[in-house]
Amino acid sequence: xxxxxxxxxxxxxLSVEEISVREGEIMRTGVDTLRAAYLSWADxxxxxxxxxxxxxxxxxxKWDIIVHYYDGTxxxxxxxxxxxxxxxxxxxxxxxxxxLNGPAESFEPGIVNPGEQVVILxxxxxxxxxxxxxxxxxxTPNGIRDSFSFxxxxxxxLTPHTENTTVNGTAHYQLExxxxxxxxxxxxxxxxxxxxxxxxxxxxxxxxxxxxxxVFPLVGISxxxxxxxxxxxxxxxxxxxxxxxxxxxxxxxxxxLIRRADGTIRQTIATxxxxxxxxxxxxxxxxTLSGTYAFPGYTVIDDTDYLEIAYYGDVLAQGPSxxxxxxxxxxxxxxxxxxxxxRMEAP
Length: 347
Hints:
The protein is mostly beta strands. It has two domains: 31-152, Immunoglobulin-like (Sandwich), CATH 2.60.40; 156-346, Galactose-binding domain-like (Jelly Rolls), CATH 2.60.120.260. Helix content is 7%, strand content 50%. The chain has one helix and 23 strands. It has one helix spanning 2-27, and strands at 31-39, 44-51, 64-70, 76-81, 92-99, 117-123, 132-139, 145-152, 156-167, 170-177, 184-193, 199-201, 203-204, 213-217, 223-224, 227-239, 250-259, 265-277, 287-295, 298-299, 306-315, 324-333, 343-346. Strands 9, 10, 11, 12, 13, 14, 16, 17, 18, 19, 21, 22 and 23 form a 13-stranded mixed beta sheet that branches. The protein has a four-stranded antiparallel beta sheet with strand order 1-2-6-5, with no helix packed on it. The radius of gyration is 25 Å and the shape is elongated. It starts with a helix and ends with a strand.
């Protein structure tokens, strides 16, 4: 009788201990969906989820990915997606990679340690409709979850943001798909001396060591199709004397390149592309200008590479009449209507 009582007490204590351990694990677990987009160049859903807790995350086949979206006919699709470790099938998801501040992880492969990020790819069938919204919920095996809602315009829109991606130890700003500016705005600027004619890479006005180089990860993308890319610049030009001194004197443009994960350049696709001339009558005012570039198409060699867009100010004919003049582009400003924000569109 006494042995039975002791055994029962031990079992009860063990159950209480297991519950306490589980509760502690839940308290130390945290996930945050940093980015989510439906990749217009791949017809894939891509999520970047960070481990913001204090526990390691694995067992992806026990994770829950739940999506809600409308297809092109207006039919509503709520659904749970199963995990696959192989090639993506319809309505499945897979782990595309685990990263630490940009580079692929090298410590404990296959485990998302605290501070690391996992990139998730999913294939939806039927496809989400153009100009619709998508909602995704990610849940870990112990029930910790995070949800993220975003729009699917149906074509590529890349907006420069001030969040960072580290490429081989160097911080680059991010390009985000179908995600308008969501911060207070950052000015990218270049200064020109009296009469100086030059093309200069813009830099953060408050952090001159940070250049206006913005990267977009190519994870999950095999080809970028040929298309007309429309660039929009929220910009201004001014100086302590008249600047620009004439129409056609100052423009804004971009370089487009592919950067490897080791930081080196794989290919320069275009230099000085999508130029937009700044009108003399707008001196000192913020305006939104546009330029176009006939993107020739690109086959992705390694999907750990990045598409990079770098922003420049270009003085073409005559420099500032005063001692200094400035060319500036505003990025990541949520106070502006989307139509006035700096961005690239490829409809």
